[in-house]
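Standup notes
- DV: blocked on the single-chain target, sequence here:
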Amino acid sequence: MPVRELPPLLGTSHFRVFIGARELGFSEVGPLSSETDVTLPPLERAHRFETVVLRRALTGSTELYDWRRKIMSGKGDRRPVTIHQLDSAGGTIVNSWRLDGAWPCRWSGPSFNAAGNDVAIEELELAYDDLVWLAAPGKPAPDKPQSEGLPSSPARARKKTKGA
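- DV (later): unblocked, structure below
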Protein backbone atom coordinates (compact mmCIF):
# COMPACT_ATOMS: atom_id res chain seq x y z
CA MET A 1 0.00 0.00 0.00
CA PRO A 2 1.49 3.42 -0.95
CA VAL A 3 2.43 5.77 1.85
CA ARG A 4 0.54 9.04 1.70
CA GLU A 5 2.71 12.10 2.26
CA LEU A 6 1.14 14.66 4.57
CA PRO A 7 1.53 18.37 3.88
CA PRO A 8 3.98 20.17 6.18
CA LEU A 9 2.59 21.77 9.31
CA LEU A 10 2.70 25.56 9.20
CA GLY A 11 4.00 27.66 12.07
CA THR A 12 2.65 30.96 13.30
CA SER A 13 5.87 32.73 14.28
CA HIS A 14 6.89 34.05 10.85
CA PHE A 15 4.61 36.63 9.26
CA ARG A 16 4.53 40.05 7.64
CA VAL A 17 1.82 42.70 7.96
CA PHE A 18 1.03 45.46 5.47
CA ILE A 19 -1.34 48.32 6.23
CA GLY A 20 -2.08 49.64 2.78
CA ALA A 21 1.24 49.40 0.94
CA ARG A 22 3.31 50.03 4.08
CA GLU A 23 4.88 47.10 5.93
CA LEU A 24 4.84 47.45 9.72
CA GLY A 25 6.41 45.07 12.22
CA PHE A 26 4.24 43.35 14.80
CA SER A 27 4.99 40.69 17.40
CA GLU A 28 1.47 39.26 17.42
CA VAL A 29 -1.59 39.32 15.16
CA GLY A 30 -4.94 37.68 15.64
CA PRO A 31 -7.28 36.06 15.73
CA LEU A 32 -8.56 35.71 12.17
CA SER A 33 -12.11 34.57 12.76
CA SER A 34 -15.64 34.65 11.36
CA GLU A 35 -18.77 33.30 12.98
CA THR A 36 -22.47 32.82 12.40
CA ASP A 37 -25.22 33.23 14.99
CA VAL A 38 -26.85 29.79 14.84
CA THR A 39 -29.60 30.72 17.33
CA LEU A 40 -31.53 32.54 14.59
CA PRO A 41 -33.55 30.89 11.80
CA PRO A 42 -31.40 30.16 8.71
CA LEU A 43 -32.66 33.11 6.64
CA GLU A 44 -32.06 35.56 9.51
CA ARG A 45 -28.66 34.34 10.66
CA ALA A 46 -26.11 37.05 11.25
CA HIS A 47 -22.57 36.55 10.01
CA ARG A 48 -19.74 38.63 11.39
CA PHE A 49 -15.99 38.87 11.76
CA GLU A 50 -14.17 39.11 15.06
CA THR A 51 -11.87 42.08 15.47
CA VAL A 52 -8.14 41.51 14.93
CA VAL A 53 -5.55 42.79 17.40
CA LEU A 54 -2.08 43.87 16.23
CA ARG A 55 0.61 44.03 18.96
CA ARG A 56 4.08 45.51 18.77
CA ALA A 57 6.78 47.11 20.87
CA LEU A 58 6.09 50.78 21.42
CA THR A 59 8.48 53.10 19.58
CA GLY A 60 8.56 56.85 19.04
CA SER A 61 6.24 56.48 16.03
CA THR A 62 2.67 57.71 16.55
CA GLU A 63 1.47 56.29 13.22
CA LEU A 64 -1.03 53.78 14.67
CA TYR A 65 -2.29 56.22 17.30
CA ASP A 66 -2.71 58.93 14.63
CA TRP A 67 -4.79 56.56 12.49
CA ARG A 68 -7.06 55.89 15.49
CA ARG A 69 -7.37 59.63 16.23
CA LYS A 70 -8.33 60.28 12.60
CA ILE A 71 -11.17 57.74 12.91
CA MET A 72 -12.27 59.28 16.22
CA SER A 73 -12.49 62.72 14.59
CA GLY A 74 -15.06 61.37 12.13
CA LYS A 75 -12.77 61.21 9.12
CA GLY A 76 -13.17 57.91 7.34
CA ASP A 77 -9.86 56.16 6.77
CA ARG A 78 -10.41 52.50 6.00
CA ARG A 79 -7.43 50.61 4.67
CA PRO A 80 -6.66 47.12 3.41
CA VAL A 81 -4.52 45.10 5.80
CA THR A 82 -2.65 42.09 4.42
CA ILE A 83 -1.13 39.35 6.57
CA HIS A 84 1.37 36.99 4.95
CA GLN A 85 2.25 33.72 6.69
CA LEU A 86 5.83 32.65 5.90
CA ASP A 87 7.35 29.17 5.98
CA SER A 88 10.44 30.46 7.83
CA ALA A 89 12.14 33.70 8.85
CA GLY A 90 12.42 35.74 5.66
CA GLY A 91 11.01 32.75 3.79
CA THR A 92 8.34 32.06 1.23
CA ILE A 93 4.73 33.19 1.61
CA VAL A 94 2.56 30.11 2.22
CA ASN A 95 -0.75 31.85 2.99
CA SER A 96 -2.12 35.38 2.84
CA TRP A 97 -5.22 37.03 4.21
CA ARG A 98 -6.59 40.48 3.47
CA LEU A 99 -8.82 42.48 5.80
CA ASP A 100 -10.85 44.74 3.52
CA GLY A 101 -12.03 48.10 4.82
CA ALA A 102 -10.07 47.84 8.08
CA TRP A 103 -10.17 50.65 10.62
CA PRO A 104 -8.91 50.97 14.20
CA CYS A 105 -11.72 50.59 16.74
CA ARG A 106 -9.28 50.61 19.70
CA TRP A 107 -5.72 51.72 20.41
CA SER A 108 -4.04 50.84 23.67
CA GLY A 109 -0.69 51.95 25.01
CA PRO A 110 1.60 50.44 27.62
CA SER A 111 0.96 49.70 31.28
CA PHE A 112 3.71 51.00 33.51
CA ASN A 113 5.25 49.15 36.45
CA ALA A 114 8.25 50.58 38.34
CA ALA A 115 9.14 47.10 39.64
CA GLY A 116 9.23 45.49 36.19
CA ASN A 117 11.45 45.60 33.13
CA ASP A 118 8.95 44.59 30.44
CA VAL A 119 8.98 46.06 26.95
CA ALA A 120 6.30 48.74 26.40
CA ILE A 121 3.62 47.39 24.05
CA GLU A 122 1.00 49.12 21.93
CA GLU A 123 -2.07 47.39 20.54
CA LEU A 124 -4.30 48.33 17.64
CA GLU A 125 -7.64 46.56 17.34
CA LEU A 126 -9.15 46.48 13.86
CA ALA A 127 -12.72 46.09 12.70
CA TYR A 128 -13.16 45.31 9.00
CA ASP A 129 -15.73 44.57 6.32
CA ASP A 130 -14.41 41.36 4.82
CA LEU A 131 -11.78 38.70 5.39
CA VAL A 132 -10.37 37.22 2.18
CA TRP A 133 -8.06 34.19 2.21
CA LEU A 134 -5.87 34.91 -0.79
CA ALA A 135 -4.34 32.17 -2.89
CA ALA A 136 -0.81 31.24 -1.85
CA PRO A 137 1.82 31.37 -4.59
CA GLY A 138 1.51 28.27 -6.74
CA LYS A 139 -2.04 27.56 -5.52
CA PRO A 140 -5.28 28.31 -7.37
CA ALA A 141 -7.32 31.33 -6.33
CA PRO A 142 -10.33 30.70 -4.07
CA ASP A 143 -13.65 29.94 -5.76
CA LYS A 144 -15.34 32.86 -4.01
CA PRO A 145 -14.95 36.23 -5.78
CA GLN A 146 -12.82 38.57 -3.67
CA SER A 147 -15.46 41.29 -3.69
CA GLU A 148 -17.98 38.98 -2.03
CA GLY A 149 -17.95 38.95 1.74
CA LEU A 150 -19.76 38.74 5.01
CA PRO A 151 -21.46 41.75 6.55
CA SER A 152 -19.67 43.16 9.58
CA SER A 153 -22.77 43.61 11.73
CA PRO A 154 -25.92 41.59 12.49
CA ALA A 155 -28.13 44.41 11.13
CA ARG A 156 -26.30 44.41 7.79
CA ALA A 157 -26.46 40.61 7.75
CA ARG A 158 -30.24 40.55 8.14
CA LYS A 159 -30.66 43.31 5.55
CA LYS A 160 -28.39 41.53 3.05
CA THR A 161 -30.09 38.15 3.60
CA LYS A 162 -33.65 39.47 3.27
CA GLY A 163 -32.85 41.30 0.04
CA ALA A 164 -31.26 38.22 -1.55
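- Follow-up: The chain is about 10% helix and 35% strand.
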